[in-house]
Design goal:
The protein is of the alpha+beta class and 103 residues long. Helices cover 42% and strands 22% of the residues. The protein is built from three helices and four strands; from the N terminus they run αββαββα. The longest helix has 17 residues.
């Protein structure tokens, strides 16, 4: 097969330039993790506030990984993450593994 109009791009340089910006945001942001009782039956949730993630897709990817790690359900409300149950210790461990510093 002939390669007509085929252009190859080397995006490795761009990938390495973008990652330090995200790491700087992770180090500077103050993250609050607390547990609360909500609803009529007093179910416990873990509320994570202060993540310095701008895009919704990155927050959803982080939530998906966190739900698998903690073995529970959760949702995104605004810029905050809610997990079902008392998952404070597990969420702190997960976020430290992901590179977040100020917990």
């Amino acid at each position: 097969m002939e390669k007509k109009n085929w252009i190859e791009f080397d995006n490795q340089e761009n990938i390495y330039k973008e990652k330090p910006k995200d790491e700087n945001l992770k180090k500077k942001s103050k993250i609050n993790i607390s547990k609360q009782k909500i609803g009529k039956k007093g179910k416990t949730i873990t509320l994570i506030k202060g993540l310095a993630i701008r895009s919704e897709t990155e927050v959803k990817e982080l939530l998906k990984k966190m739900k698998v790690f903690c073995g529970t359900g959760g949702t995104v409300i605004g810029e905050d993450i809610q997990l079902q149950g008392d998952m404070v210790n597990k969420s702190i461990e997960f976020l430290r593994n992901e590179g977040f510093q100020n917990l």
